[in-house]
Automatic annotation (TrEMBL):
Belongs to the multi antimicrobial extrusion (MATE) (TC 2.A.66.1) family. MepA subfamily. It is found in: Cell membrane. One of its GO terms (biological process) is response to antibiotic. This is Multidrug export protein MepA. The keyword Chloroplast does not apply. One of its GO terms (molecular function) is antiporter activity. It comes from the Bacteria. GO terms for cellular component: plasma membrane. The keyword Coiled coil does not apply.
Length: 440
């Protein structure tokens, strides 16, 4: 499929459907994780995972930064017909992520207890958090490498392969969750092992593509220095900022939730993250699929096509948002019951209080993700970063300290919706100033 010439709706759905299904596969695996851990390990298991989230956010964010930044540059080069230089970018990106992932995870592994202490793990959570994170850190390098390969597979016109990979990885995770947690009764250790093995599978499924006849991108001699990789990585900085900001914000939220609601508050926040995760991952799948499409059309100077792609994307994310709002408003207690045992009354009540306000976020977060992805694709990393850091760090951190002073405990529940709303206003202003007609 030629993304610069073929029918716009066909191209959009050819890319977005596999991307969304892939993200749904990932989110469903995470939700199943939450289901098994919440029901067979307990609220402390959910809290342990949430305590570890900032570390995962940092590593995942760095992988996204390299993957998105370099793949967008490679996509533009392919759009210009320069396949050899695109292959050099691809090869250097893979080498970079291999070195960084194993080095960083090794350092974190040997300082795990100190790390968790600074992340807010108390005596009740420390042992179970160490048990979980020590296994995850062994396997995360394979996830980081898999993310980079996944983005280049999509740039190389194989979005279906990217989807199939995510789907198979998620199925492996779900099956192993049942086997390790329920059948073998390995608890949080089993949950971590299931997740790790599913991440390892990404490499074995994606890597053969680049040695096949279908591949435009090949492993070549990495000629020259890595300055071009640093520049390309900068273009994906907004995704790193977004992920690391989520990690820092989660760290602060965990502190506030422990202080206000004890350990049950951290468990409740973990459940809310699962509910947010569903809608955000679908919208992220849509926005993510735009990057190879827009970057190639940007290289080909097709501004009208970019406008049409964006229009379909905005409509799609609003449909997703309204569906999630209906689900959260109509069946909140049933959603909470998925992750919590019947005896967890206190945790469940905190979740229901959160749900009363959190649905508002779905009116705005999809549009924010679309505009941020658009700026990344047209090589405007600063503008993308402004949106990313606003919705995931600046406003959440600002409001988590201000709103509880005004609205007491309800102020905590209002933080995320208000942060998304103000970011939405900023995103619209930036988009009007750098619309496709103005930048091409």
């Amino acid at each position: 499929m030629n993304v610069t010439k073929d029918k716009i709706s066909s191209v959009f759905f050819k890319y977005s459907i596999p991307s969304v299904l892939g993200m749904l596969a990932i989110s469903s695996a995470s939700i199943v994780d939450g289901f098994f851990i919440g029901n067979y390990v307990g609220a402390f298991g959910l809290a342990a995972i949430n305590i570890s989230l900032p570390i995962f956010s940092f590593l995942f964010g760095f992988a996204l930064m390299i993957a998105i930044g370099t793949s967008v540059v490679a996509g533009k080069l392919i759009g210009e017909g320069n396949n050899q230089t695109a292959s050099i970018i691809f090869t250097k990106a893979v080498i970079s992520i291999v070195i960084f992932s194993f080095l960083s995870c090794s350092i974190l592994y040997f300082n795990i207890e100190t790390l968790l202490y600074y992340l807010g793990a108390n005596e009740n959570l420390m042992d179970i958090a160490i048990e979980y994170l020590s296994i995850i850190l062994i396997f995360i390098p394979f996830l980081m490498i898999g993310i980079v390969l996944d983005y280049f597979v999509r740039i190389d016109n194989r979005p279906n392969l990217a989807f199939i990979t995510m789907l198979l990885s998620s199925i492996i995770n779900i099956v192993l969750d049942y086997f390790f947690i329920v059948y073998l009764q390995k608890g949080i250790f089993g949950a971590a092992l299931a997740t790790g093995i599913s991440q390892l599978s990404l490499i074995f499924i994606l890597l053969p593509h680049f040695f096949s006849n279908k591949a435009t991108l090949k492993f070549v001699s990495p000629i020259g220095n890595y300055i071009q990789i640093l520049k390309a990585t900068y273009n994906g900085a907004s995704e790193f900022i977004n992920e690391i900001s989520v990690g820092i914000t989660t760290l602060i939220f965990n502190y506030i939730m422990i202080k206000t609601f004890s350990t049950e508050g951290v468990a409740a926040f973990a459940v809310i993250n699962y509910l947010l995760w569903i809608g955000i991952m679908i919208s992220f799948g849509i926005s993510d699929s735009l990057q190879p499409i827009i970057s190639k059309n940007f290289g080909a100077k097709e501004n009208k096509r970019i406008e049409e792609f964006l229009k379909i994307a905005f409509i799609s994310t609003y449909i997703v948002g309204f569906f999630m709002i209906a689900l959260i408003i109509l069946v909140p207690e049933q959603l909470a019951n998925l992750f919590l045992e019947d005896t967890n009354y206190e945790t469940k009540q905190i979740v229901l209080n959160f749900v009363t306000f959190i649905w508002i976020a779905f009116l705005f977060n999809g549009s924010n993700l679309i505009v941020s992805a658009y700026f990344t694709a047209i090589h405007k990393p600063l503008h993308s970063a402004i949106i990313a850091i606003s919705r995931s760090f600046i406003f959440p951190v600002l409001f988590i300290f201000i709103l509880p002073m005004i609205f007491e405990k309800n102020g905590i529940f209002l933080v995320i919706p208000i942060a998304e709303f103000i970011t939405f206003i900023i995103a619209i202003v930036l988009f009007k100033n750098f619309s496709p007609r103005k930048i091409v």
